[in-house]
Design the sequence.
């Protein structure tokens, strides 16, 4: 069964044209992989579609803007996948 | 349509905010400064303005769906196909359907037809953001009221 990280890595690779082998769990999507906020909308769209969820990007952005969270907490891929798993679990609950 | 003022939509014919669909009408004027340059001696509506027209129809649907609490801004146009020319005087029917309602973004699929013939189509993504000021919000409400009112008349 494909893990959340494997699925997310494939989505990032396809939407942002980044070789799959460069996409590892400790990478930050923005600072390490060079993804910008527009690219991330495509990624968010593909993640939503793939997992049948709605990742709360607006809430994350607000928390970042209000300095209540660090970028790494959401956009290091291992953390991102944890957040996605939380959203999936909440949907299935 | 007032091409030079980017007023692309004339009438909202059908709108279903809950299901994310809109059908709007756009009447291409016989004359416009745009036609002086595009093209001299052979006036055609520029493809970018057809994309803008699809984006505006999508945008009004999204605004209505969000009850004008936030503003959709054009972010990404995917797979836009211009299938045939649009000349002055054409009556365009613009359809848009919500494809995905994300958090802070939305994606629509839109198309324009004239006389039952497909003119162009595209997927369009919008960032959903707060209105930058109350003036814009008021103007968008006024414009929407104008193009919706004409539907009932």
Sequence:
């Amino acid at each position: 069964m494909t893990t959340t990280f494997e699925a997310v890595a494939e989505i990032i690779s396809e939407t942002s044209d980044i070789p799959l082998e460069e996409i590892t769990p400790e990478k930050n999507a923005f600072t390490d992989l060079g993804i910008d906020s527009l690219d991330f909308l495509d990624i968010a769209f593909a993640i939503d579609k793939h997992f049948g969820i709605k990742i709360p990007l607006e809430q994350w952005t607000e928390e970042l803007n209000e300095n209540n969270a660090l970028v790494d907490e959401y956009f290091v891929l291992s953390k991102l996948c944890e957040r996605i798993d939380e959203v999936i679990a909440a949907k299935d609950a | 349509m007032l091409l030079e003022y980017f007023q692309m939509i004339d009438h909202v014919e059908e709108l279903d905010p809950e299901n994310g669909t809109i059908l709007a009408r756009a009447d291409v004027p016989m004359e416009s400064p745009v036609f002086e340059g595009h093209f001299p001696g052979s006036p055609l509506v520029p493809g970018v303005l057809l994309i803008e027209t699809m984006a505006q129809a999508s945008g009004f649907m999204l605004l209505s769906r969000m009850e004008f609490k936030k503003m959709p801004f054009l972010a990404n146009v995917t797979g836009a196909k211009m299938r045939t020319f649009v000349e002055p005087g054409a009556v365009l029917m613009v359809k848009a359907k919500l494809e995905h309602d994300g958090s802070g973004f939305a994606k629509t699929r839109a198309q324009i037809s004239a006389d039952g013939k497909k003119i162009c189509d595209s997927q369009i993504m919008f960032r959903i953001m707060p209105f930058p000021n109350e003036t814009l919000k008021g103007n968008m409400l006024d414009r929407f009221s104008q193009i919706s009112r004409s539907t009932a008349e």
In short: The beta strands of chain B are 11-16, 21-27, 71-82, 91-101, 105-114, 117-129.
